[in-house]
Design brief:
The chain is an alpha/beta fold. It has nine helices and 16 strands. It folds into two domains: about 280 residues, Zn peptidases (Aminopeptidase), CATH 3.40.630.10; about 110 residues, Alpha-Beta Plaits (2-Layer Sandwich), CATH 3.30.70.360. A hairpin with a 7-residue loop joins strand 1 and strand 2. The structure holds zinc ion (2 copies).
Length: about 400
């Protein structure tokens, strides 16, 4: 099958833009948080009404999977993902369609992601007859720390897209308000980090601060654990397979003359490989227990596992790059290094080879570097760039269905 001209994909995106902007604004002013984003799902369902899609929902989330079977069946299938959830923070953009829900804001662009994916679904449905395979649209809540993608996978929503098979490839876009308008940014290999939350409790014996010999003071032990963890990172973790371990909170004590019974540490661990993640998790448990034990105290470590490393398959990253270059504009920008944030699209990429890319949405004439970033109460986007997002989704899908990763 001949590949389409890039201009066709760009035109597809432009043709959907008005609808995408309207849907994005409707979602933006009614943000929802977590796994249950049912009003957002309802808006998406309404926008997909009448299209030739098979819809699937699962018990664990308000997520929606829509499957488009093309006119041909060459045995290939491709998943496109958009997340749906907002953040627990006030909005201060002053936009006419700003959040009406107190303390909730779409400050990570997931409103745009959902709307762009609807635009792509509409555009690809209109071209169903020339699609040689199957496209799966994954509308996912609960990205902001709720593991929505994992629940949707566990609910079986991406199973048996074709009999006995999950999709062959997966793609996602994330808008980026501090990147140049229209730039498509990404890399092969690790793109985003794993993110685990670390807790430690050091238990000693409290008493009078003037008689430390009668106590088991947890505070110097907590301090020693913090330093031992940093020494581990500096002296054991290879720079070629790095880890970040930040202790961000230390809590203990009540007054200047009282040694407390216990001290608590809280922090985060970020890595770029599963091997490194497991190694540092183990070191954290060991150092907390054994540094405390060395001083006659006890140390208990607990780890809340967050998202795994988001790893772009090199073939999928190359396909995304080719699409971005073919679409022109600001083209492809190779990310020189991973970003140490985390993303639950990682769960999809753990099951299905694929890639995530960022889309620059800084408005024309504004310096991207000085703009409000993601998760900022004044974060805004150049909505016209959503046409490019739609075009990219269409290009990813059609190109993969046409040629696979070849
Ligand atoms: Zn976010
Ligand atoms: Zn996000």
């Amino acid at each position: 099958m001949d590949l389409m001209q890039a201009t066709d994909w760009a035109a597809l995106g432009e043709a959907e833009l008005d609808g995408v902007v309207a849907l994005r604004r409707a979602i933006h002013q009614d943000p929802e948080i977590g796994l249950d984003c049912r009003r957002t799902t309802a808006k998406i369902r309404a926008a997909l009404e009448g299209l030739p899609l098979e819809l699937r929902e699962g018990p664990s989330t308000s997520g929606l999977v829509a499957i488009l079977r093309g006119g041909g069946d060459n045995g290939r299938s491709v998943l496109l993902r958009g997340d749906m959830d907002a953040l627990p923070m006030p909005e201060e953009t002053g936009l006419p369609f700003a959040s009406r829900n107190e303390g909730m804001m779409h400050a990570c662009g997931h409103d745009a992601h959902s709307a762009m994916l609807v635009g792509a679904a509409r555009a690809l449905c209109a071209r169903r007859d020339r699609l040689p395979g199957t496209v799966v649209f994954m509308f996912q809540p609960g990205e902001e720390g709720y593991h929505g993608a994992r629940y949707m996978i566990e609910d079986g929503l991406i199973d048996d897209v074709l009999p006995g098979r999950r999709p062959d490839a997966a793609f996602a876009l994330h808008i980026w308000p501090t990147m140049k308008r229209g730039a498509v940014v990404g890399k092969a290999g690790p793109l985003l980090a794993s993110a685990d939350t670390l807790h430690a409790t050091i238990r000693g014996k409290g008493g009078h601060a003037a008689m430390p010999h009668d106590n088991l003071d947890p505070i110097p032990v907590a301090a020693e654990i913090v330093m031992a963890l940093q020494a581990h990172i500096a002296r054991t973790v290879p720079v070629t397979d790095p880890a970040i371990l930040s202790i961000t909170k230390i809590s203990a004590g009540t007054a200047h003359n009282i040694v407390p019974d216990s001290a608590e540490l809280l922090g985060t661990l970020r890595t770029l490989s599963e091997t490194r993640r497991r190694e540092v998790q183990e070191a954290f448990r060991r150092i907390v227990a054994h540094v405390a034990a060395a001083h006659g105290l006890t140390g208990e470590a607990a780890i809340d596992e967050g998202y795994p490393v988001t790893v772009n398959d090199p073939r999928a990253a190359a396909l995304a790059r080719a699409c971005a270059e073919q679409l022109g504009g600001a083209g492809w920008v190779e990310l020189p290094a991973p970003i140490m944030g985390a993303e639950d699209f990682a769960y999809v990429l753990r099951e299905v080879p694929g890639a995530m890319a960022f889309l620059g949405v800084a408005p024309e004439g504004e310096d991207p570097a000085t703009r409000a970033p993601l998760h900022n109460s004044r974060m805004t986007i150049d909505e016209s760039m959503m046409a490019k997002g739609v075009a990219l989704h269409c290009a990813f899908a059609e190109r993969f269905l046409a040629t696979g990763f070849d």
